[in-house]
Write a structure and sequence with these properties.
single chain; alpha+beta; Immunoglobulin-like; 8 helices; six-stranded mixed sheet; about 325 residues
Length: about 325
């Protein structure tokens, strides 16, 4: 008979571990055994290595800082005063105004005064200046200089500058003819008030020629020559204005009229100089060939000036070869 299997088998099930509360976990972590380095030896906690002499050096430096007196980096009052005096002794000059306004490039008419004012570290007598035409280079010096210990004014009177276009205004300080400070040259533009100046010169020259003719008729030759000479200068300036405006035919007319005036005044040199300017216009092809009247007038002036050369006492009688310029204008020259 088979034996019945025993139902009383030993239970080998493992016991489930219960979760430990959080409070107990922390206590357990605290009471955990510290690892030892070796059997039977106590574990030593590793400390960070400290270099020798660091603490001592720190202590020394702190003691030195404590014992060192605090000093200010500010410059002493005496040194401040000395440096200020030296700065004031450096020569300096500045332009404040040109014709009463802030410095500007212009344009400025050369028929009016050019007044430049400013300040300087020295007396106004040490201030020098000039206005220079850029091309071709032509320098015009000032006509008057005024001012005080720290201010200065330079004036170029009307018509002192006889050129137009680009110019440079330069001002500097001098001491025993040595430049001690200068301002970079300012670019300015000079122009001529052509319309008003030309009309004014035409009227003045016509009046001078009328006066010259009346003196000539009365036999007052020297007075007549003076009036003709003034008329010649006015007509010469009219020719320069026409040339600046590139009115070449009018320039030739004005200069031929001026040459006639100087011939009547027995002034050989200015007449010959003006004639060269007219000949240059013809040589450069500025006068068209159809202006036969100008070519004929040029030949007449050449003969008159050649006859005047070396002639003495030409004021004792009439100069019939020259004739009288047309008082009403330059066309009859």
């Amino acid at each position: 008979m088979a034996k019945k299997r025993s139902t009383t088998a030993v239970k080998t099930t493992k016991k489930k571990s219960k979760p430990i509360p959080a409070a107990k976990q922390t206590t357990k972590a605290k009471t955990a055994k510290k690892p030892t380095t070796a059997k039977g030896s106590k574990r030593t906690t590793a400390k960070p290595a400290i270099k020798k002499g660091v603490k001592r050096a720190t202590a020394r430096s702190s003691s030195r800082k404590a014992s060192r007196p605090k000093t200010s980096m500010a410059v002493p009052a005496a040194k401040k005063y000395r440096s200020r005096v030296v700065a004031e002794d450096v020569p300096s000059i500045q332009i404040q105004t040109i014709n009463g306004a802030a410095p500007r490039p212009g344009p400025f008419p050369h028929t009016a005064d050019i007044v430049v004012s400013g300040t300087a570290s020295e007396d106004f007598t040490h201030v020098d200046g000039s206005i220079t035409k850029v091309s071709p280079p032509t320098t015009f010096a000032f006509t008057s200089r005024t001012g005080g210990p720290t201010t200065w004014t330079l004036t170029w009177a009307a018509n002192t500058i006889t050129t137009t276009g680009a110019h440079k205004l330069g001002v500097c300080l001098t001491n025993n003819q040595t430049v001690t400070d200068r301002i970079d040259p300012l670019n300015i533009t000079m122009t001529a008030n052509h319309h008003h100046e030309y009309a004014d010169l035409e009227l003045k020259s016509s009046n001078e020629m009328l006066a010259a003719d009346s003196r000539w008729v009365l036999g007052r030759r020297k007075e007549s020559a003076e009036h003709f000479s003034r008329a010649g200068r006015f007509r010469d300036r009219m020719g320069s204005i026409s040339l600046e405006r590139q009115h070449f035919e009018e320039a030739a007319e004005d200069w031929l009229s001026a040459a006639t005036c100087f011939v009547r005044a027995c002034a050989f040199e200015p007449a010959a100089t003006i004639l060269v300017q007219v000949q240059k216009l013809f040589a450069e092809g500025r006068i068209p060939p159809e202006r036969v009247d100008l070519i004929r007038a040029l030949r007449e002036r050449e003969e008159q000036i050649q006859a005047l050369k070396g002639k003495e006492g030409c004021l004792s009688g009439p100069t019939s070869d020259a004739g009288s310029p047309n008082p009403n204008g330059k066309r009859g020259a």
